[in-house]
Queue: 4 jobs
Job 1
Amino acid sequence: MRITLAYFQMVGWLDRLSGLLPLMARVVFAGVLAPYFWASAATKWESFPFNLSIGAYAQIFPRAFEAAGYDVAALSFWHKAIAMAGSYAEIILPLALILGLATRWAALGMMGFVLVQTAVDIWGHQASAATIGMWFDSDSGSLLADQRALWAVLLAILVLRGAGALSMDRLFAGRFGIHNAGTPPPPPLGRI
C-alpha cells in the first residue's frame, strides 16, 4: 500500500513538472538542431537576403539542377521560389521556435521541412540504405530513420503543448488577456 501511495504521489509531482517539457524541448532544439539548420542555411546564400548560391539549388534539387547543366537560369520559376522559401524557412523557423513565437505553427513548419529534407535526401541525393536505416534494428544511429524520428517527436511536443514558459507566445497571450496560452494544463491524475 505504501509503495502504491508513494508511486502516485511521485506521478502527481511529475505531472506538475510536465509544464516544463515545452521549454526543455525548445532549449534542446536551440542547442542541437538550430545550429545544424543555420549552418545548412549559410551554405545556401551568396548574399543574403536575395541571392541564393548555386549550392542551394544543388542541395534542394540535385537531379533537376544536374539536368539543367548546373545553370540556374535554366531552372523554372517554381524551382527558384521553392529554393528561396526553403532557404528562408531554414533561418526563420528555428528562430521562431527558440523565441517561442508562433511556436505551434513554426514546429509544424519544421516538421514539414524535415519531411521534405528527408525525401530530398532519399530520392534526390539517393541516400544509401545504411544512411536511411530502419526502425527496430540494433543500430540506433542512422541519419534518417532514427535521428529524424527523434527530431519529429521533439517538434511534436511543441505542436501539441505549445511554447511553454519563457516564450513570446506566453508574453503576447498575457498582453491580450489570454490565459494558459502556449501550454495546456497537465491531465488530471484521477483514479487508476
Job 2
Amino acid sequence: MSSAPLKDPAMARSRSAEPFAREAGAGPGVVCLHANASNSGQWRALSEQLATRFHVLAPDFFDCVRDSLWAGKPVTSLKDEAAWIEPVVARAGEPLVLVGHSYGAAVAMIAALSRPERVRALVVYEPTLFSLLDAESASPNDADGVREAAGDAAEAAALGDLDGAARRFIDYWMGSGAWGRTPEPRKPAIAASMNNVRRWAQALFDEPTPLAAFRSLDLPVLYMVGAISPPPTLGVARLMATVLPHAEFQMFEDLGHMGPVTDPAQVNEAISIFLNRVVPKQIPLPSLRGSRAHTRSGELPNIIGGAVVCCKRAEPQASVEGQPRCAKRDARLGVGSHR
C-alpha cells in the first residue's frame, strides 16, 4: 500500500483499517480467500472442518468493507488485494497454506509469488487470471464470455440496474436462471457488490504477471476445477497445467465454477485430504520444504504432478493414499487423468 496521503479521507480510513477476518482453531496457519460477490463467510464450513488441527483465518476483501467506500473508486490490482489482507496473513505465521476460490484464488497465487518462502502449499479452485488467456492469444479467445458478461453487468450497474447486473453476472457463472433461484435474503448484498464488477474485471484482465512466472512456485499445489465451468476458468487451468511444477489437478465432474459455494462438502473434503497429506502431524513444519529436494521435477510424494483427478459425487470410493478415484480419462485440460 502506498503511504502517500489520500485525497479521500473516507478511503484513507478504509485503506488503513485491518480487514475483518473469521478465525478458528490452532496449529499451522491456513488463510482462505473468498470469491467475488461473496465474503469470508463462504469458508465457515471449511474453517470448522480444519479447526481441529489448523489455525484458519478467512479475511474479507476490499469490497466487503461495510460502508462500501471502495465502490466506484480507482481500480485496485491483485497485488493491492494481497496487501490489504497482509495483516491477516501475518497472523497465520510461517509457513502457511493459502486457499482461494475464483478471484480469491487469483489473489492467493499472486500473494504466493510475492513471498514464496513463507508458503507451504497452495489450494485453489479456478483462479480467474484471465490476463493469461489474452497473453496467449488476442480475442476471440476463451476469455470472451466473461469479458462480455462483466461488461454487460458493469454497464447495467452504472445505470443503476443492480438487479439486472447481478442477473447477468450470476447467470453467466452459475447458469441461466441462477439469479432467479437465489434466496431473496442473499440478493441485496450480491446486487450491491455489482458496483465493483468493472474493477474486478480490470484487475483480472490487466494483471501483468506472465504465465512463466508461476514456474517458480516450487511448492505443493492442489488446483481444482469443475467440469461444467465456463471456458475462461478451464482455459486458465489448461495454461497452469503447463507451468506449475508440483501441482495436482482435480476435476469435479458435477460441479461448476461456484462449486465451493454450491457443494462445499465435496470441495472441502478434497482440501482436507490434501492438507492432511502435505502437512503431516508427526513432522515439524519447517522440515517439509527441504524434503522436496529428493523428488524429481514435477513430482511430489503421494502427488501426481500435472495429473487430473476426476471426482464424481456418485463414486466416493478412495484409491491409494486417500485420493478420490478418477471415473474416466479426461483431456479437457490438455493432460491425462488417472484411475
Job 3
Amino acid sequence: MNATLILRLCALAALLAPLALMAQAAPLERYLDTGDGVVADQSLGLEWMKCAAGQEFAGRLCRGTARPFAWQDAVRHCESLRLAGRSDWRAPSLRELQTLADRSRTAPRLNLDLLPAPYPYRFWSAATQPDERGAVGVAFNFMEGVAVGDAGANFVRCVRGPALADPPR
C-alpha cells in the first residue's frame, strides 16, 4: 500500500470511530410497524423496509431468503424499489444504519422482532471508502456494532425520508 492510501484509510477510521459510539439503544416506542412492509422511525422521520431485500412481506412476517448483493447492486436495488406505494427508496447512509443499532442488546445489536435480519447481520450503506483497488462499499455489522469496508456481498435494507448524511471523508 502506498503512503497516500494509508493516510486516507487512517483518516476514514478516525471519522468512523465516533460514529460507532453514536448509536445508543433504539427505544421500541420510537418505531411504528405500519403493517405494509415498512417500519417508521417516528423520531427521525425515516421509513425502513421491514424485511431485508429478497424476502417477501406477508401477514406481518418476512418470508423467504434474504439476498446478498454486491455494493453497486444494492444501491441500484434500493433506487428501483417500489414498496408500500412509494418509489423514493435509497440505500441508507452509514449514519442512518447506525440509528438502528441497539446497544442494550448483545450480538446482534438489532431488534430482530421489529426488523428481522439474516445472519451475519451485515447491511450495506451508500458509503464507500478508498482501498488499493480504488474504493469499496461500507457495510454496518450489527453483530459487532461497527462499520466495515467490504468488496464482497452483504444484505440491504432500503430507507426513505430525510437523509442523515455521513460526515465528510
Job 4
Amino acid sequence: MDLNWYGLSCFRVREGGVTIVCDPYDKSVGLTPPRLKADLVTVSHDQPGHNNVERVTGDPKVFSAPGEYEVKNVFVTGLQTYHRRHNGSAERNVAFFFEIGDFTIGHLGDLGEVPNQSEIEELNMGEIDILMVPVGGSDVLDPTRAVEVIGMLEPRIVVPMHYQHAGLAGAVGDNLADVDKVSQGVRCLSPRAARHAQVDQDVPARRNPGGAAQPLAIAKGHAATKPR
C-alpha cells in the first residue's frame, strides 16, 4: 500500500488499483492544492482546509456524512464525531475508516473532541492498521488528547497530521503546535516520511513493557516488514 501526505490533513492512499484522497484543502490555507486523481474522496469537515473536492479529478465518489458505503470493493465507514462542542452547540466532524485490500485505515479528519466509548464501539471494527490523527491543538486534538484517542483505537501505526509546518498561512498555522511536541510515548510515522511511504500488511505491533500495543514507526520510502 502507498501512503502520501500533501500537508495539513490531506492524504492519498493507493492499494489494489484503488485511490482514496482524504481532506483535500483549498489554497486559502497557504499551500498549493495538489492535483490528484481518485476513485473516492472523503471530507471530514466542511471547511476550506478539508473540502476542496473540485481539485480532485477522476469523477470520484465523495463522502462527507456518517454512514456505511462501498466503492470498488473498498468498505467505508463514516463515524460521526465532533470538531468542537461549545455552549450546547456541536460542530460535526466525520472520521472515516477504510477496509481496503488487507488493510484497515482510519483518518480522523478535523477531530477536536475525544469521542466517548459508545461512539468508538459503534465502529464494530477489528484491528486498525494505520490511523491518521490530528495533533496540532487549537481547534483540533492536542498531543495529550491525541494520545487518549490513540489508546482507545489501538492502531498498529500512527501518522500525525494537522500540525504546524512550512507553507501554512498564518491564520491556519500560527495556533498549531509542531509535531515534535507529540508525546514521546507514541511511536509515529511522521507525515514528513509519509510523503511517500510503503506499508506491508505484515507490519507488526510492538509491545511495551506493560503489554499494550505500541504503534510502529516505519522509515521513509521503505516497506515495514515482519522481522525474521
